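User: what does the whole thing look like in 3D?
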Amino acid sequence: MLHNYLKNISIVLASQSPRRIELLKMLDIKFLQKKSVADETIHAEDHQNPRQYVCRIASEKCKNIADEMDRDCLIIAADTIVYHEQQILGKPINETAALDYLSLLSGKTHAVYTAICIRYKAMQYSVVERTSVTFKKLTEQEIRDYIATGEPMDKAGAYGIQGYGSQFVKKINGCYFNVMGFPIHKFYQLIEKIFKG
Amino acid sequence: MLHNYLKNISIVLASQSPRRIELLKMLDIKFLQKKSVADETIHAEDHQNPRQYVCRIASEKCKNIADEMDRDCLIIAADTIVYHEQQILGKPINETAALDYLSLLSGKTHAVYTAICIRYKAMQYSVVERTSVTFKKLTEQEIRDYIATGEPMDKAGAYGIQGYGSQFVKKINGCYFNVMGFPIHKFYQLIEKIFKG
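Assistant: Here's the predicted 3D structure for the full assembly of 394 residues, as structure tokens:
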């Protein structure tokens, strides 16, 4: 299990996401936390290839702090996007964008992609997970009430599945923790590959 | 949304499950908590009808405290089981049972059922949700390491999806919160039905 593989490793999480921090703590993993900023600009061609886009951002976040760190540190970076009808939805820039995003997702099934990028002993490893999420049909009142909670503003696709947003999710198909921003089973597989070879 | 429907209602949660308490708090629902014990004996015929079984237990938990409560209280009770190969798996009675349950679930897809039962103004309402959960193939070492964490012992099917157990879950199909013990979207639908009619 993860806490056994990682107990003697210096770990740096290149993320300030409260969800990722909470999940690593839940797994009893000790880590340092470092802010790492990537250029998250979405170019026209990125909308054709969401996997490539999240991988690029996660890899950039990883690289950006790798130089300052000891090579024996294990650096973890991640990026999460919502993808719907050939369009990448990042964090909404304002409440109008949040309203637009939630109207797009209402009554439909969209995809959530998270890439995890790990740097360890000068090697880099990446993995991407995809989960389908089906929303109930939302009324405009529900969308406005939801925006009023403040929850949508710092989240890809303008919702959090682990908060008030949970009420709107009819079903998911795939890994739940991927939708929260950190696909735990995929991470476990990758750590096993790195340490068991 | 739930916190709007429920803000002026006296709510009693007939459960001591830390997961259910956490989820209701996450949804900003104020409630009193009451222990309610039902006879959870699983009879031979229950294995043929898991929906009926969880409904019966949730309904009993609800009924057991309804008499002491004001009729304007909204009482919420729930029960969760794991169901695999025509067998209901409740909480393991000891570590050997936990090992047996986890060996059964290893590498397979099982079902999780939760029933919610609500009593409000002398009316009773019930709803059942079903989610499929697919486990990775577990080694005996993983099972033993997992049991050593203590997590399996108080949980239906001997695992918690919101803890160390998250590492073993390749995917789910349905509502995640149902696997945690409280299907939020179904609860929201039911509350809407009760208050909007």
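In plain terms: The beta strands of chain B are 11-13, 32-33, 74-84, 87-89, 109-120, 123-135, 169-174. Chain B is about 35% helix and 25% strand.
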